[in-house]
Structures are given as C-alpha cells and as structure tokens.
Amino acid sequence: MFLNCHSYNSLRYGTISVQELVQQAVELNVRILALTDINTITGIYEFHKLCKASNIKSVIGVEIRKENELFYICLAKGNKGIGEINKLLTEHNCDGKELPKYHPSFSNVTVIYPLNDFPEKLHRNEYIGIKPEELNLLVKSELKVYIPKMVILQPVTVKTKTDYNLHKILRAIDLNILGSKLKSTDYCKDSEVFVQPEDLLNKFKAYPKIIKNTEWILEQCHFEFDYSTPKNKKFFTGSKKSDFELLAKLSYEGLKRRYPDCHRSAIQRVEKELKVIDMLNFSGYFLITWDIVKYSNRMGFMHVGRGSGANSIIAYCLGITDICPLELDLYFERFLNLNRKTPPDFDLDWSWQDRDTILQYIFDKYGKDHVAFCGTNVEFKYKSIFREVGKVFGLPKEELDELATKPIEAHDINSVSAMVHKYGKLLEKFPNQRSMHACGIIISEEPITNYTALEMPPKGFPIIQFDMHVAEEIGFEKFDILSQRGLGTINDAVKLIEEKRGVTIDIRDTSISKNESKCNEYLSRGKTIGCFYIESPAMRGLLRRLKCDNYKVLVAASSIIRPGVAQSGMMREYIFRHNNPDKFEYFHEVFKKELGETYGIMVYQEDVIKIALHFGGLAASDGDVLRRAMSGKGRSLSALQKVKDHFFESCKKLGHSEQLSKEVYRQIESFAGYSFCKAHSASYAVESYQSLYLKVNYPIEFMVSAINNGGGFYRTEVYIHEARMSGANILNPCVNKGEYKTTVYGRDVYMGFMHIESLDSKTATLIPEERNANGDYESLENFVKRVSIGLETLQTLIFIGAFRFTGKPKHELLIEARFLLAGEKQNYKHLTLLDEPKKEYKLPEVVRHPYEDAFDEIEILGFPVSVSPFDLLQTKYRGSVMAKDLTKHHKKEVKMLAYLISRKHVPTKRGAMFFGTWIDNEGEYFDTAHFPDNLSKYPFQGGGCYLLLGIVEVDFHFPTITILKMQKMPFIPDPRYTLDKDKSFEAYNRIREDVSMTQRKPYPQEKEIGLPRYKLI
To answer: Rounded distance, CA 796 to CA 232, Å?
Structure first.
C-alpha cells in the first residue's frame, strides 16, 4: 500500500536512508514497497538489493516535482518503464525541456496525480492518489466520479517527530529562508510516516475499488536487474571477433616498437594477456582506451596511463601506458584475472589545459546518449552543517562563523546553539547535493537512460545520478580521465624549448631521462622544485635520506611516502635498511623471496597481498578484500578485519609461530590506509623523471612552464626564485616584451600580465594581442590610444615598471597618465593616420629611493622581484651557517637568517607542531621542526624573514633544524611613505607563505616502530 516513499536521496527533503526505509518495512511486515524519490533514481539499486535480501517486492518510481510543486508520481511497470522515466528527467535536466504538467508520454509507467491537481480526463495508465485524511472530500459529487481511478496514497518521508523537525530544517535550507518563514506548502504533512498496513486498509474499507486499484498497480509493477553482466559498450569494431583481431594486430605492432630485439618473455607475456582479455571480453575496453590515446597523440597532447592498468604489457604496447611491466616485475593479474570480482579501469591523466578536449572527443564519438560522468553525492560537511542549520535558526554571521570555525568543545552552548548541535548531528552523512565525479566516465552499450536519469552540472558534461561504486556494482567499468598541472608543465616546456632553442625533445622516450647521471644527481640531492610529485618538502627530504639515484628507488619512494606506508613506520624502516643493507635479517624466508627488492618491507599494495597469500596462505578472495582496502575503496580496518581470522587459522596450519604471525598481521593491518600499487608508483616515477630531465637540461624554460601552469606545491614566488637560481634574469611585466603568461628570451624571463592581480584578464590579454597585431608601443600616449584602459589600471602598470622602455621615471609617467586620461576611461581607439604633435613639457627631477621599486612589486605582485627579500632587512646579519653546510653541524646549535617558504601543520597530543621550509641568503633550501612548547613562545608571524636558533639533526644525510628560538625580522620602512609611519610597514605584511594542513600524526620515530630486524622463529 506504500506507493510513495522518500529516502534522503530526495535532497533537502527526505530524512530516511534507503536502509532505514527497508528496515521499517520489514518491521511492519510490508511485502511490497515503492521507492519514489523526488526527480532522482539515485537509490534504486541499493533499494532493490535490500528489498530482495528481505524478501520484499521492490517497486521503482520517481516523484516528479517542479520547484516543490508535486506534478505526479511515476511507478515503473518494468525496466522499460524506468528508462521512460529517466528519459523524461534527462530531457528536462540536460536539454531544458519543460516537464509536462499532465499526461507524460509513457507506455510502461503508471502515473498517480495528487488529489488537489489532476487533469479532467485520465489516460488508462493514470490514477489519482488519495490520502487517508482526504477521504472526507469524496462526499463531493465532482470527486465521486473519479473513485474508479483512485489509489491509496500514504507518503513516507519521516520516521519520528525529530525527523519531521529535521525535514523542516532541510526545506528551509533548500529555500534559503529562516525556519520561521516556512509556509505549510513548503514541507510535508506530519502524517507522512509508515503506519500498520492493516490500519491503513481499514481506513479505506468503505472504498474497496481504491484498495483493489492499489493492489493491482503494485502487482503490475516490478523491477529485476542483472548485476553480473557488463553494461559498458561491448565492441569497438562491431563484434567480439573483429575486436580481438584488431587488438592482437595492434599489440604485436606495438611489441615490435617497444621490444625491437625480439624479446621472448615479452612475446610470451603478450600471448598470455591476450588470452585472458579475450576470455573476459575486454578487447573492446582496451580498444576504446587505445582510441582515446590515439586521438590525444594526433592532437599533440601528452598523457600518462597509470594505476594497475600499467601492469599490462598490452597497455604498454598500445601506448596507453609508458611502464614496461617486465622491467619492474609487474604481474598482469593485479589488473585483470579470471577470479577478480570487480572490473578494473585505466587511469589516464592529461594536462589540465587539454582534458576538456579529450572529454569532448569521447562524448562526440560515442554520443551523448551513451556517455556520462559518474555522479557523487556531496554530503553535509562539518562547517556547512553549522552554517546551514544556524541560518535556519536565525543566528547572526558572527555566531555562524564561530560555530563553523571552532571545534565543538569550544562552542558557546545556549538554547539555540544546542538545537543547532542536535539537528546538525542528525545531518552528518546526509547527501546535500549532487556533483560530478572528478574523473570517472562510463560509456554504455545501451542508452544510459536505461539505467539512470542524467543531470547537467555547471561544468557542462552530463552526470549519472549515482556514484562510481553503484556504477561498478551494476556492471560498468569506468574510464578515469584525469587532469593535472604537472603534465601541462612538461608539455609546455617541450614546446617552449622547441620554440626558443630549436631543440625537439621526444619526452615520451623515457630512456632519455631515467639513465642520465646528472638527473640522478639532482634526484639524490632533492633538487626537484617544480617536478611533479617529488617537489614537496617531505618528498625532497625522503630523496635525500635515500640518496635516491635511480629509477627503482624512486618508484619505491613514490609509494613509501603515502600515508599507509609512512604512518605504519615502514617508511622509516625502509630508509634504515636502504642505508644499512648489512644491519638487518629477513625475519622469514618468504619476505626475502617476495620482498627482497624492498628489503623485506611492504611498500606496495601488491606486497601486502603477496605476504597474505604466500606467507599467510589466504585464499584469492581474501586477497581481493585486501586489494580493495589497499586501494582506498575500504579505507578502514574493518575491511581487513574480515580476513584476520582466516589469516591466523592458516598461519597455524602452516606452522608459523604465534609471535611471527602476530607481527606479520600487525604490518598488514597498518596498511589500512592509502598506498600505491607498484605500477601506479612507477607511472608517477616516470613523470617525475620527465620533469626532472627538463629541469636539469633546460631549467629556465622548465621553470617558466611551471609558473605558467600555476606551479604545484608552492606559490609563484618560489618558482620565480628557482628560475633565478637556474640563471634566469627575472624582469617585471613589460608592455613591449611581456605576454599574458610569463615568457623567456634567452636568459631574460619577463613575468606575465597574469600575475598582476588587479589587472583584469581581458586587458592582460589585449595588451600583447594589440602589440603583436600593430607593432611595439612607442610611448605611454601611443599605448593609451591603442588600448582601452582606466587610470587606476594604467597606474598599476606604471608602478610595476611596464613602461620602463620609455626611459622616463615613474613619477613623470604618472603625471603624463593623468594628463592623458584625466580620470576617464578611454574607449578603444585604432591608430590614426596623422597624430597631433606631442606636447613637450619638463618636470622637476625626483630622487627615488633605490628600494621603492621593490615595495611597488610587493604591493602589486606579492613579492619583490628587483631585489632579494634579504636586501630589504634592517639588519645586515645573514646568519652564522649557510644551508649547504648544515650536514657538518649534526647535534650543534646554529643561528640562521632565513626567508619563509612554507610550513606544514601537524596536530599532536601536545598541540600543533609545524615543519618549515626556508631559503637562506644564498637561495638554498633547508627545513625546520617546531614543537608545540616552542611554538607557544616563538610562534610564526606570517611570511617574511626570521632569525632562527636551533639544533641541527642530520637524519640519513638530511639535516633538519629543531627550533629553540625564532624572531621575525623587520624590513626597512617603506620609502614611499616616509611621512606616514602607519603605512611604512604595511608592505611587509603582504609577504606570503604557503601553509598546508594535515590531520596525520607525526611519522613514528625509529624507537616507536618496533619492526624486527632479525629472524623470527
């Protein structure tokens, strides 16, 4: 009898999870149940599975509303009916087609109108829903005639009184109004709850036709779904046979390119993989991916294929990945095997500039009816919960800010904030809005509307109404099309080197970078600023600790820095064993055999699985549970706990001691967090090497490209500094030399107009466009005639030195600008054939302080360009030790003067601690550690230069200074404001710093790890 049930997937309306909804039905012994969320099918597959498990017949439908006005309830008579409903919603969401108020065009759907709004004539599949409280209206003659077309309507939206209040809060949030401003039509009736089926039928006993109609509809409606069959596009060429023939042909062609010396083991591997791919009907999936990559290559784009797909030699031969699985002993079964329960996917990265072009190709090639992004439900988050609920209760902005920014224990609790807490807690894990998955795309064989309705988010590509996990459960293998700035930097650097130096680099030829001694030297010294994945302070420190000077160690380093490995203490132990290979024993032969390359340390997801299978004797199914946990799909210990009992039972049978088994499982368990599969680490290592090759051999062009791609871990200033350290002459934007982006002429690097924050992008683009079209600007007056610009913007350009080609001082240019514009913005003008003669006038000479330009730069760009920050200090002291000599001062106290680059916040039991990264007066980087007790006395005071006193700790070749005292050092007074003391120090407060937050605990020290370095019996 329950034709109209809402879950909390009816966003900002429903209050019951799908699981709770089904559980309530079980408790009331309801045998047939309909899910009809508002304008969405998000929960239907979960609902269907739960109902089936509880022996309840599931009826699938959707409640169609427009701006909270109920049009009708749709119930699918079968899978075709779901497709019809999905199509209706998709045409509305994606094509802007109006939802029909009456008579939607359905063949396999039952439509139920509300009693207060239905058409005069009803089609055969159309009915009117009547609620128990509306039965008294049937005395009206105009309604009596419709009794033969009526059904019982007992909507379900809430469970309890508390739920009802929460529903009202959700409605107020949705409407963005105070709770007190809600009208009765904005929210549901408090009667929209489950009731005893017998009681419900008893209310309608005077109307047996209504009961019979309801039962008949529920009988007619059904939903069955085959979760086991793949739903992706089946064939690339049109048939399985021709797909396999094409895949085999391309694979052997690629084999000759990748292995020109007729590598026997490579041939055997290709034959083996092709056989498995064919058996699992995966030829089409490989070919679709190959086709996308082929288009990318044709367009001149660079991509990276990573993830477990790089375990495949077929992927390597097709050019999908650049990882040779034989070189790293990567086994194909990690990606695709006959026992794997869930389908794999390829992770493909493009430059952030090229990704949309790739996406457009996919949508155009396979059609909008067959391609969509996975959706994702964005839940109410901590801060948004307090803000949203607080607004409903009418709290002022100051109190909302306090609730959102302070921890719960620091909140001022009163009657209102207590209510905010109560209902805010209920909203945790509630979906708030639908969004696009970052990268997951599905390409379906049948129209996607057979499975889901589509929505069109602001980014412009349609999304399905459920997430990637549901997509995977129902049989879709997604394609992960990702973007990153690192690839943009590499791509742009290669183009810039060819443009400026005439040198063509085949950066895809990975052999040119991995074997270069100079690259490996840079790597071992951590000179990797700007290089993808290996530029953060933590990664540079790890590279130095390992003296990493080859590809295989870099592959390991890419994984051991991940939280799952680092937090378990395995990173510390790996560093020790790498530096002391003769000071440990493998505590069991299996570890020596399976993990010899990583000194018996579990580093990759595969290592954990290897030990579980080969040491613990677990079944392949348990290995799959581990695999999912390692890849972050089950990021808690609960996923690992499922295999724990099997592990210890098996270990006992194999004769392992309890002590040994406990230690091994402790290590496995510690991986209940993110870690990389080896192929993923290898993909990152290859891209890191490509970046490093360009940085080492073409440092200026590489750093310019890093700057133009928005950098990476650090702010622009750091990449500017790195370019200068590489020999570049850094120059401010210039209207006759500069471009929108930063550009280079030989060693001269002109900062782009994009870095002037107050300059709008239209003007920043127009300046070089006009110059390139009609020649250099001859003077300030000539510039003003050709570029439409306001006085304030023109003054900014003068202050930054963009007109220095005129040879005139800034004050003279400023006066000339005022004469030319007189405070009015000029319309864009074309050059006139005859210009009036220029008026000559002489201005008095003004003596400028040599550092005025630097303060202009700080104000406009955020950092000085013409001088170093150290030049602006009041003190001439530069420290007693330089960064390059720190390794010679182990356990010694040093005093240094340094410029703050970044700091990382790490919470501890004793309070917050920070790790700082600095440069000294010579421009070299070094790192510091700041513990909570010290920070309370000597806190960070924003960006700038500090005098540091601390103890040097050298940890495996890498020095860190544990800070004892710290004091921010003042700049000289701003010479532009000699008569205004308040403003004379404002510029220093504009100096920035990079602050990153983390919730991880500090990495464990050696004494805290307790990993055995001897054989256990």
So the answer is: 55
